[in-house]
Amino acid sequence: MKTRKLQSLFLGLGVLLAAGLSSCGSAEKAVSTKAQGEELIEVYCTGPDYQSDKNHFRASAIGESLDQMVSKKKAGTNARAELATLIQSTVQGTIDNYVNSTELNNVEQVEERFEGLTREVINQQLNNIKVICEKQTRTAQNKYKTYIALEMSAKDLEEAINQKLSQDDKLKVDYDYEKFKKTFEEEMQKLQAQQRGF
After folding, report:
1. Structural domain for 126, as ranges
2. 51, 82, 118, 168: which sits with the fewest CB atoms below 10 Å from its CB?
3. How far from the centroid of its chain's Cα atoms is residue 69's Cα?
4. Which helix (H) or strand (E) covers residue 56, if one does?
5. Where does the signal sequence lie (predicted)?
6. Which residues, 6+ apart, have CB-to-CB distance to 176 below 8 Å?
């Protein structure tokens, strides 16, 4: 009988102790991140669906202004600049690796020629970009915010570069399309890995 009373007493103390500990813990957890000065915000037109991959160059940007159209223009300009930087970097990597892997007589001249021609193509192709996401909001300060994501096909760019390079009289003899295409595809794989954070 005494043993049963002791067991009941210990069981009761255990339940009280457990209830007390869990209430202490939940009081600490109840402090939200908002109370700590943090607030989760949603940034439109970003995330995995809006990052470059092996088939597409993609860039996102935000523009803010008291004027709705100015907000849109700012976002578009910022996204175009980001896209141009990604493309230029990838094409430069392709040229460097392609030229270094070939046995050409005057490497510097060939590289300069490649760079000049591809720059022309990139500028032309930047007219062929597609808006894949666009959202507008109005802030508490009555400003317009535009979120935008742009995309350009890597295949279209590669084909346009090939067409330009294969028509150039100075490069025609030494230019190997299959080798250039393979090098370009490798650079696109690297870009995808960088964008995905691998």
Report:
1. 48-191
2. 168
3. 25
4. strand 56-65
5. 1-27
6. 102
